[in-house]
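Quick start: read one record
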Amino acid sequence: MKYIILLPVLLACTLAAQAQNINKNAMRKLQMAEFAITNLYVDSVDEDKLVEEAIVGMLEQLDPHSTYSNAEEVKKMNEPLQGNFEGIGVQFQMIEDTLLVIQPVSGGPSEKAGILAGDRITAVNDTAIAGVKMSTEDIMSRLRGPKDSKVNLTIVRRGVTDPLHFTVKRDKIPILSLDASYMIQPHTGYIRINRFGATTAEEFLNALKGLQKKGMKDLILDLQGNGGGYLNAAIDLANEFLDQKDLIVYTEGRASRRSNFYAKGNGNFRNGRLVVLVDEYSASASEIVTGAVQDWDRGVVVGRRTFGKGLVQRPIDLPDGSMIRLTIARYYTPAGRCIQKPYTGKGDDMQEAYAKDLLDRLNHGELMHADSIHLPDSLKYQTKRLGRTVYGGGGIMPDFFVPMDTTQYTDYHRNLVAKGVIIRSTTGYIEHHRQELQKKYKNFEAFDKDFEIDEAFLTDLRALADKEKVKFDEAQYQRALPLIKTQLKALIARDLWDMNEYFQVMNATNQSVQQALKVLNEGFYEQLMDKTTTEL
């Protein structure tokens, strides 16, 4: 059953009926202005553009999330959430004007055609894409196309003298919501979700059952950096943890009656300890799941206060394929907390203040010190089962605060990332050492235990940084070195295996992940879930 069903005909009828109540003078005024400009203005005007800008201008007076998208933007916006696109199925990286295949999608058309990791695609249908400074978007448009259509690729492969030619039959390529799923310690599973899309619930359930077969009793659910997505997907995920008739979330607005969304009681992880990881970039659907878990005392939340995006948008399709996403209600957690953070002002001033919120949090110390967060008593709420104190005011406050680690992030490191030095050093290393690494490390466990970034690798990285005019700073380099080594090793693991292995390397130093393990292993979980211990 779908919780949100968009019926364009019904919506059109509803809007038409509501239009009868619109201030007729205001509507007539708007129509007369548009008619006058189009027909009487001294110069010719683009009527479509004029109308688009009028719509944008009206929406800017409302809130930060009511937006207008043209037809092309709508198509691009929906693709990541719908769960697939049509193309050749490769993960790639642009290296010095050449498309380098990081990995072909498992079971995808490129893998079936014989394309390998490390191949360089130099031409598409006899049109050169290497060395011609073609944009990534243009290259992607040439590689993508309708299912069952064919595309001819020219490939340069290390160790092969002449270029290779492949004909690839395009197909549906899945866009996965899950980044990683693995046993992080005996009896504890780890699942990371990057977005809430059409296939999220199915992906999560498959991963969950796979981990349960490996003996998982406890789960760390990583929603760090997850900006949200479909409400349906958030409700389906929360359902996996909650009991029958537990309220997951409700919505309410001036013209929208309160709508309640409940758990069905058929979830597959209603028992077992649960830790949810969040940060300041976790938003919307992530906050719905996190708020429900916290309000029902079903698990504990680790990390930093979430973004605070709790406005419900109704998509209104326009005749030319464009769309208005209009805010019609707000999301509330089971305890009654409004997820949406405050916003004030109008137009550009509101948008600027809203965009600067995370910077303000950083400047005020909130991301580094829990005691920098000051919330009034009026924002106190009680959890549903244990009566613990939780806070409203926008976003979800974690039960266990983890400060942002700024010690290793330096200007030198940021420039290495911005100039592509980290990723290019890795792909260059893999290109020269892939067979050697595959022969030496038969599995990831051996690689994780024994592989280290050596000085020769770092010398090459610094040489590439010099070539890209990244000014060397010895002190900053030494501070960032542990992080640089971890990122390089993780990227190599990703290229040799997959994203699971990438996150296994990265999570070894991720402070929120390590705090979650501490909460599970050192009794803090049980202390928090004891009603007599509400403050830790």
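The chain has 19 helices and 21 strands.
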